[in-house]
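Regression test case RT-17, inverse folding.

Input:
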């Protein structure tokens, strides 16, 4: 379905891998969203606020939006598959909050995207953003150690009036 890079990881992939594993760098955009400056990232990123499945504590993560199937819907990909803490938390408690662009703190429901639909979302993303995909694919696959088309996706549906 998608092209999987078989070559050794390039410099960009190795740098991105280091970035993804440096906690303070990955968490830096959260401060901008919390300060009401999430609009600087446009609509390509969002901040997902979720509840820890064990701690019950409020958690936040900034993720890239790879699909928008309808109004108030966002599709995000779990780069670390089922091991990502945010993914495990939203599958345990799907009531989340989303901030993106100028829209802040919107109540939403998170639901896993079926595998067949994930393939469609990924294909549409690749068609819309071929240059970004070319960079992102190698980075994600190197950092996560698996092909992107095997990574689970989550749909966030904003709940009107909440």
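Golden output:
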């Amino acid at each position: 379905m998608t092209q999987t890079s078989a070559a050794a990881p390039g410099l960009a992939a190795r740098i991105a891998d280091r970035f993804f594993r440096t906690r303070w760098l990955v968490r830096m955009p959260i401060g901008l969203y919390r300060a009401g400056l999430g609009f600087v990232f446009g609509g390509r990123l969002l901040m997902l606020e979720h509840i820890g499945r064990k701690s019950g504590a409020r958690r936040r993560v900034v993720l890239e939006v790879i699909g928008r199937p309808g109004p108030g819907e966002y599709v995000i990909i779990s780069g670390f598959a089922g091991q990502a803490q945010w993914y495990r938390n939203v599958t345990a408690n799907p009531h989340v909050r989303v901030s993106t662009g100028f829209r802040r703190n919107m109540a939403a429901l998170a639901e896993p995207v079926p595998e067949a639909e994930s393939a469609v979302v990924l294909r549409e993303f690749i068609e819309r953003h071929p240059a970004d995909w070319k960079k992102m694919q190698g980075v994600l696959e190197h950092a996560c150690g698996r092909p992107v088309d095997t990574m689970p996706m989550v749909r966030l549906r904003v709940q009107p009036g909440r």
